[in-house]
Design a protein that fits this description.
This protein has a domain of 219 residues: Alpha Horseshoe (Serine Threonine Protein Phosphatase 5, Tetratricopeptide repeat), CATH 1.25.40. The chain is built from 19 helices and no strands.
C-alpha cells in the first residue's frame, strides 16, 4: 500500500492547564474498613458505624462510575449523605468526598439553566441558608420558593444572588478539602491547588497552588506530578524548564497517569529537554491511548499511518485508533485538527479491500470496547 502522508502542524499533545484530581478517588483504607460490599456495609452503616458509612458511600460512588447507578441529584444526595458522619469525625477521605459533592453543585450552579434545575433539589438545611442570603440581596421580605421555576429564574438572573449561591457551595468545598488536605489526603491537596490556581471559590494565588501541588506530589499523587510537569513546560508558574517538566511527567507517567503519559510522549516526540525519540513517544502515547484519552488515540493513529512501516496490520491499527478517537471528538482536542484526521482515516480505509474493511471495522469495534468502554475482551 502507498505510504500515507499527512501534514499536521502539531500532532503532539499541547501542554494543558492543570487538572483536578479524579472525581472518584481510590477507596479509603482509613482505620481499617470493616466491610467491602453493600450487603456487608449497609447493616453496619445503618447502625451508625462511621467506617461502614464511608465504605458504603464509596461503594455506591464506584457503582455510579460504572453506570450501575444513575447520577441523578436524588441519588447523589443519598450517596453523599453517608459521608457526613465520618467526615465530621475526621475521616479524611469522607471529607474529600464531601468537598467533591459541594464543588459539583457549585459547578452545576454556574450556568443559569442548571442553577434553575439544581437548586430545588438541594437538602432543606442548605436551602434555608441560600434563601437567607437571597433575601438579603433583594432587601425585601418576598418569599422565594426554590421549587418554583419562576422564582428560580428571578434569582438566577440576579448576579449577586447567584454569586452568593456559588460562594456558599465553593466555601463548603474548600473547607472540606482543607480538612482532608491537612490530614495528607493528596487528592484533596490537588483540588485545593486547583482552586487557588484558577481562582475558583478563593482568590487566585499561584504560591499556594504550587505549595499544595508539591505536597501532593511528595505523597506520590500522579495528578499533582502531571500538573507540576505542565507548570514547568508552560512556564506559567515557573521559569520554563523542560528538564523539570520531564522529571515530573516521567514520574506521573510511571505512576499510570494518562495525561502525564501523553505529555511525556510530547517531550520525546518534539525533543524538549531530552533527545527526540519517536519510539518512546509512540510507547507513551499508546499507554495514554489505552486508558481512553481521545487525543492520544488520534496521535497514535497518525504516527502509525505516517510511519515507515506501511504493512496491512499497521494501517489497520492506525485506522482503529483514528476511528475511536474521531467517534469521541467534541472539539475539546488540544491542538489536533480532526478535519485532517478524518481525511487520513478515510484515505486509509479507501485502500482496503471489502474483506479488509470488515476486518478493520471489527478491530475498531474491539478498540472501542476495550479502550473507551473499558470492557475486558480477548
Amino acid at each position: 500500500m502507498k505510504k500515507i502522508i499527512l501534514l499536521i502542524s502539531l500532532y503532539g499533545m499541547l501542554f494543558s492547564n492543570c487538572a483536578f484530581a479524579k472525581t472518584t478517588a481510590p477507596a479509603s483504607n482509613q482505620r481499617g474498613n470493616s466491610c467491602t460490599s453493600v450487603e456487608s456495609c449497609l447493616p453496619l452503616a445503618n447502625a451508625g458505624n462511621s467506617e461502614a458509612q464511608l465504605k458504603l458511600g464509596e461503594v455506591y460512588l464506584q457503582a455510579m462510575q460504572a453506570n450501575k447507578i444513575t447520577p441523578t441529584d436524588e441519588n447523589l444526595n443519598n450517596i453523599y449523605s453517608w459521608f457526613k458522619k465520618p467526615a465530621t469525625e475526621g475521616f479524611a477521605k469522607a471529607q474529600f468526598h464531601l468537598g467533591m459533592y459541594y464543588f459539583g453543585i457549585a459547578n452545576r450552579a454556574n450556568a443559569c439553566e442548571e442553577t434553575m434545575e439544581a437548586l430545588p433539589k438541594v437538602p432543606k438545611e442548605q436551602r434555608r441558608v441560600i434563601i437567607g442570603a437571597i433575601q438579603s440581596v433583594f432587601n425585601s421580605s418576598t418569599h422565594y420558593d426554590l421549587y418554583n421555576p419562576q422564582d428560580i429564574a428571578t434569582i438566577c438572573l440576579n448576579q449577586k444572588a447567584k454569586n452568593l449561591i456559588l460562594a456558599y457551595y465553593y466555601d463548603n468545598a474548600f473547607n472540606w478539602f482543607l480538612k482532608a488536605a491537612n490530614q495528607n489526603d493528596s487528592d484533596a491537596q490537588v483540588n485545593l491547588a486547583m482552586m487557588y490556581s484558577n481562582g475558583v471559590g478563593v482568590d487566585q494565588d499561584n504560591a499556594k497552588a504550587v505549595r499544595w501541588f508539591v505536597r501532593a506530589a511528595d505523597l506520590g499523587n500522579d495528578d499533582a506530578e502531571s500538573n507540576l510537569g505542565a507548570m514547568y513546560a508552560s512556564g506559567r508558574y515557573f521559569t520554563q524548564n523542560y528538564n523539570m517538566a520531564f522529571y515530573w511527567f516521567n514520574k506521573s507517567a510511571e505512576h499510570g497517569n494518562p495525561q502525564g503519559q501523553a505529555q511525556l510522549a510530547t517531550l520525546y516526540d518534539q525533543g524538549l529537554g531530552i533527545p527526540k525519540d519517536k519510539n518512546q513517544a509512540l510507547k507513551w502515547y499508546k499507554a495514554s491511548a489505552q486508558q481512553g484519552m481521545p487525543d492520544s488515540q488520534a496521535t497514535v493513529g497518525v504516527m502509525l499511518a505516517i510511519s515507515d512501516n506501511q504493512s496491512l496490520p499497521t494501517l489497520m491499527e492506525a485506522y482503529a485508533w483514528l476511528n475511536v478517537a474521531i467517534a469521541q471528538n467534541n472539539d475539546d482536542s488540544q491542538g489536533l485538527d480532526y478535519t485532517e484526521i478524518k481525511k487520513l482515516r478515510d484515505d486509509i480505509y479507501s485502500q482496503f479491500t471489502e474483506a479488509q474493511k470488515k476486518q478493520a471495522d471489527e478491530l475498531s469495534h474491539k478498540y472501542w470496547q476495550r479502550y473507551v468502554l473499558g470492557q475486558k475482551i480477548s
